[in-house]
Amino acid sequence: MHAFRLFKEEHPEIEASWYRSSNNLVLVTVADEKELGVTAARAECSAGLHVSWFREPDMEDALTAVAIEPGKEAGKLCANFPLVR
Q1: For residues 18-48, b (16+ Cβ closer than 10 Å) or e, as one string?
Q2: pTM (two decimals)
Q3: Which residue stretches of the chain have pLDDT < 70?
Q4: From CA 3, how far away is CA 51, in angstroms rounded?
């Protein structure tokens, strides 16, 4: 939720459009911080998506969550990760 909240601040137009048209959230989990960072970097660099990176201040600024711009490309990037249940 921290990453989503940050995304809303950093990309308000994208968030507003998503809210009006879809309003679906998909939460997935990754193995570790490295995999999270690699996935976020791929989303930004390879797919050209907007990404918000949340670093946890109470955990020495460890990357703990990202929010990726919604859409087909984001779905492809995250399709093999397990859903959070």
Answers
A1: beeeeeeeeeeebeeeeebeebbeebbeebe
A2: 0.92
A3: none
A4: 9
